[in-house]
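Entry 14. Two folds queued back to back today. First construct below, sequence then structure tokens.
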Amino acid sequence: MTFVRGISLRQVRLATGVILFAYLVSHFLNHALGNISLEALATGVYFHTAFWQFLPVTILFYTACLVHTALGIWALYERRQFRWKAIEPLQLALGLSIPMLIIAHVIGVKLGQTLFGHERLYPQILFLYWIWAPWRIPMMLAVMTIAWVHGCIGLYLWLRMRAFYKHAAPFLLAAAVLIPTLSMLGFYQGGRMVIDNDSAEWREETQSERQIGTRAEAQALERITDYFLFGYFGLIGIALVARGVRAVNERRRGMINLSYGNGRTVRVPKGLSVLEASLRNNVPHASVCGGRARCSTCRIRIIGDCSALPEPSQREAFVLGRVGTSDPSIRLACQLRPPADLSFFQLFLPHAISADGHDSHPTRIGQERYLVSLFVDMRGSTQLAEKRLPFDTVFIVNRFLGAVSQAVLESGGMPNQFVGDGMLALFGLATSRQNACRQALKAAAMIAANVDALNKFLEHDLREPIRFGIGINGGEVIVGDIGYRDHMVFTALGDPVNVAARLQDMTKSLACEAVMSDEVRATAGLAADALPQHDVEIRGRNEPMIVRTVMDARSLSALVNEQQSAAA
């Protein structure tokens, strides 16, 4: 039952598209046998037709053809605007062009066989294209390219967020290039062999009326092709007219106000989804899957009464169920089409954080200098991901890293490296040692405050609050660009950086939020008795190290302020 609830028109379109792409791969591989011989083509087409003309497979294939075409026309009508991404309107345009380009070939081969018993195999088709009507060759190559690109885009949009895609991408790219290339070469080589074999005897053997039909039968198939094209263009025209009628009706029904809870209000026609309204008005709105209801990152929380809103669709209810919420005020922005004014706020705000953006512009070649390294790590991210959609986990981690980065930047530091759910920040690129240590301590306090605010904001979506650990250490390091060619990253190298990472790990065993070296405490000017002291063993060091533990990182702000007031 849960599986059925998770099925939407997009899933149906995906499934039918996979079936059609499987047929396309089979057909292209058959074409590629033309690089060997006409006999190889004949053998390949025997196995190809034996499988695809098996009755259950035939029913499944033609059903997929009709459903996928119908859903393509429906997608043209349903899409409110074309600003998702350039690749998606391109895929839709290519898909809609395929039936009008391929129908003459399909009717000539398949329907001719069904109605008149024609036997149009490779000798007959290649003769038609290369001898009788060579002007059709560019059209055939064009439709092969269009169909292949359309299918590859669909597979990319489906697989790009899968865990295995990064590793499989080079092999998929190789197949995406080789298969159509070999297919077109096979089509060319087959045509050359037909031209070489052309003779009166060969034509009598392969081009008889029993195989290719009579003139009257050809005219009948051409009329059927024309009727189909008229009908197909009519359906597309109906979809376009329906879009216009819908726009007029929406304006007649009136406009509604959508308030984002941050003072931003947009006025849109009724019938738009909240996500469509955001994109139409250039309001940033998180949506990893592009509005396909495959993730819940576009979630919003309704402010006020939500009883008048339409009930969630099966797909929306399925996604919300996956993230474990039954709160009626939580909805998917890509699915909710409010009939009246609505106030809400987004649960996941899009953030753009640059790992190498900094204002101090330090030297990009190697240079030795004193820096303070701050390592921060999110606790329990593995458990967080166990019962959440992958997209939601990524966005929660991004919100955490956003809160950390904001604290670092406001304190005068530079977010430098993002490693999973952790981050390295550097302080002292353009300031003194003492100020760098104080900035790092203030950043730690602000990180704790920002994470507390984030926990309150997401309290309805988190089973337990986000926890973290911070390690702070200072020392002489090498700073500069590290990497290869176009993949250079500005960072710091040296033992002090490694020690900061070790101190961050120690927050687990010492049961505290932050651990700093005593050297950072002394350089910042904090009193010797301000924080608990511990002698710890650091992996890779022979001598124990004196560190200071901080149970509540927020207290560091007050300690730094007290020291600065006393110094003044």
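Second construct, same run, same settings:
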Amino acid sequence: MTRISEIDVQIMWNRLLSVVEEQGQTLVRTAFSTSAREAGDISAGVFDLRGRMIAQAVTGTPGHVNTMAASVGHFLDVFPVADMKEGDVYITNDPWKGTGHLYDLVVVSPTFLDGRIVALFACTSHLVDMGGVGQTPEGRQIYHEGLFIPLLRLVNAGAMNEDLLAMIRSNVREPVQVVGDIYALMACNEIGSRRLVAMMREFRLGEIETLADEIISRSRRAMAEAIGRLPKGTWSASMRIDGYEAPIDLVAAVTIGEDTIHVDFTGSSGMSTYAINCPMCYTEAYTTFGVNCVVAPHVPNNAGTLEAVKVTAPEGTIVSATHPAAVYARSVIGHMLPDVVYGCLDQALPDRVPAEGTSNLWTLNLIAGHGLTGIGKAAGSAFMVNSFHSGGAGARPAQDGLSATPFPSGVRNVPVEATEAITPLVIWRKELRQDSGGPGRYRGGLGQVMEVGSRENAPFGIFARFERVRHPARGRKGGGPGAPGRLSLASGTVLKAKGLSVVPPNDRLVIEMPGGGGMGVPTEREPDALRNDVRLGYVSPQAARRDYGTEQ
């Protein structure tokens, strides 16, 4: 093709979106692990032969989508298009060339039409286990954290690499779930390929490079136009979070140019000895997402959109970790980066960004088994499960913050029934946490309270990696901070928010998630809104008097 009509571009663009969404839904519906099946912690997309992302599935997270967008280029460096064969599938969990830690697999598959390669499909998913020390920040090097899979052929011209699968099975605690998810990832790309081939036959396309050029260039122009309307200059901001062995400072400078935005993290803290270090690919993913949410949320996310935001950071900082740093909990840092960027953009674009939120997921990595929660039978039934949950988001410029909302990750909360169905755990309580949203003219979103016990009255453990315990989400423009988080036992003992804690038999784990910061002076809150908060139990009468100066 040399030219595509306007009508055909719109029709084929919408068709591509349906192709990648079916690709993503195939992964969700065939996955074994709750992280993919229930929480949607995945990504899926179609790429041209130059490794440029053309379209992504709506189902997915920014961390997975935007790192996947960069990872396909790494695959092409090792497996050139000219050497790809029909039936090939490639795989990696290299944190620096994939999604930032070993617990995510990236799978890439070529698509062939009448014997010629025409496109690439890629997808990612978070796994329940990858061996090593488990889902904890306690690792000190990448070698502690599990099985490292370099860029390899998973399938060679239709022949499965059974040696690799045997290696994976022998190194993980949940081999059925992990290998089941690998097959789900392959099925995801296979469905995408079938649907794309059907689309190309219907529209009589011999290649998709021309369509890709049109889509990507339009997105880049739309980003340039959106950036061109912004004020020009450089603005800086910083944020302190809990960290592990010491508090961590995240420092950013945002420079708005004529058609690009540059975010530089010079001044941020150095790497940690624990596994909260963030590889640059993950820093780029969430920084770009945070910028695009404010600057051009209407522009489709693809190679053209991503090209408009440049992200830099000195190597060896917490946001640009180098090998062999431990990186399992890189989301502790990555999820905070939009808030840091918003501290800069709030100066350039008043009344456009929200207050700080919990941001970091409060993921319950729950586990039991010999050597972790006891010895032999005294350790209880062995299991490992991820259960994603969220605190409150920050108040918006003219609205309250959303409660129990996983911004910026987009990962859905896992239903308690899913956790109870595959483990001996019981979720006795899951409700919004009163008084956790920061006071303000617009209130911060509420966190949650959860209470977890064992139906066997046996011990179980939690690998904690929680933020906003000592440094809660800050408000903006006079709004108050959200409540800090807390981890404890029902019997009263306060637990560490980092590392492995064991819940004794006949006790329960209590998780109090943080709230988002408020926006504006609390005394300016509408009386009807405050009365409704008190009526619904979001704000206690005592807090209404203390924070809002009223007897509502």
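Quick look at the second one. DSSP finds 13 helices and 19 strands in the chain. The CA atoms of residues 358 and 391 lie 5 Å apart.
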